Amino acid sequence: MDLPVMPPLAPMLAKPAAAIPPGMQYEAKWDGFRAVVFRDGDEIELGSRTGKPLTRYFPELVDALLAQLPRRCVLDGEIVIAREGRLDFDALLERIHPADSRVRMLAGTTPASFVAFDLLALDDESLLATPQRDRRDALTAALRDAAAPLFTAPVTYDLDVARGWFEHFEGAGLDGVVAKPPELPYLPGERVMVKVKHERTADCVVAGLRLHKSGPVVGSLLLGLYDTAGRLQHVGVCAAFPMRRRRELMDELAPLRMESPAGHPWESWADPEAQAAGRLPGAPSRWTGKKDLSWLALRPERVCEVAYDHMQGDRFRHTARFRRWRPDREPRGCTYAQLEEPVSYDLGEVLGER
Predict the structure, then answer these.
(1) What is the pLDDT of residues 120-148, one digit of tens each?
(2) I need a surface site. Which of 78, 191, 279, 281 has the fewest CB within 10 A?
(3) Rounded distance, CA 273 to CA 270, Å?
(4) CATH, range 13-198
């Protein structure tokens, strides 16, 4: 492979903001695997955000991209999987599997798509120094004849349209809006774009904690919600506390510490069959590898309010953010019923398939 922009390449990133800024190029924020595609003739590589190749996990995309992309190009975009008109991140996670036979089976049953939103090189020319608006025009021209599973991300320069996307596209599984200065060059690895994501709050039961890697202070709090059967389901964690606060939390929660998980709603967390039957902390995955997933049980008697962006099935998609303790709330009242459900929106409408 011999391209003007070569792998590995760290993609350009976005910093969070509370509101959509004016005077930008706006795109939907896709919930998938960020990927930079390098094609040089019959060679193709899908590079992840960390620079590791994703190529072997998406053989159906390799075939489609070889059939449709310009013979020499580099694109930035997102690998996504859609089910029933919305993005399905869980199905995407299943594709990262060591067995080639399973990868190819899933490529047939849950095929992926690639949504391109930037063009970094074409033929022998690097476009990294080219302004964002001009790169977008070049991308549109290069992919003008593209068809599923290759898409060009919709773009608008109208702030009101972007606000409408922010409100409606979430129902198709997207999680916000990305704003890019029209004159911005492509700056690998730098947080120079802006992302605006949904934020909601929920009252959750604090039912455990993990220790911080630096020592015996709180690393994260394990959060739970009760389902309709009255079972406490693990829905995620909240973390990112200052070190002083980590020490304070350790003292605050000491009266709730249990000697062992025996008698705790998640006492069977180490049992694979129990993990398959419900949401418990400590489930191993290909992402966690050999990471220590042990935790300390707390009597599920305290409630905290956390902020989250959106749900992935029955859990928080990302790490939640601690807001405050809720001594006025009873743990049993912390159920899934409090969670806001976005209005459904067909992903085909977002991608212009309707």
Answers:
(1) 999 999 999 999 999 999 999 999 999 99
(2) 191
(3) 9
(4) 3.30.470.30
- Fold exhibited by the domain 200-337: OB fold (Dihydrolipoamide Acetyltransferase, E2P) (2.40.50)
DSSP per-residue string spanning 163-174: HHHHHHGGGGT-
Task: Name the residue with tokens 């959060």.
Answer: 223
Has this prediction a pTM greater than 0.70? Answer: yes
Residue 200, strand partner residues: 308
Dihedrals φ, ψ of 255, to 5°?
Answer: -65, -20
All structural domains of the chain with their residue ranges = 13-198, 200-337
Cβ(288)–Cβ(191) under 8 Å? no
- Facing residues of 297 across strands? 208
Q: Point out the catalytic residue in the list 15, 29, 180, 213.
A: 29
User: Which two tokens mark 5?
Assistant: 């922009």
Task: Name 160's bridge partners.
Answer: none
The three-class DSSP label of residue 119 is: strand
- Give the C-alpha separation, 185 to 168, whole Å: 29
Concatenated DSSP letters for 296-316? EEEEEEEEEEEEES-EETTEE
Euclidean distance between CA atoms 271 and 236, whole angstroms: 19
Average pLDDT over residues 192-199: 90
Residue 259 contacts by C-beta under 8 Å, 6 or more apart in sequence? Answer: none
Contact in structure between 153 and 117 (CB atoms under 8 Å) = yes
- Give the residues across from 329 on adjacent strands: none
What does the pLDDT look like over 270-311, one tens digit per residue? 676 655 656 678 655 544 445 566 899 999 999 999 988 888
C-alpha span between 34 and 78 (Å, rounded): 5
Please list the residues that pair with 40 across neighbouring strands: 43, 72
CB contact at 8 A, 301 and 257: no
Tell me if residue 29 is catalytic.
yes
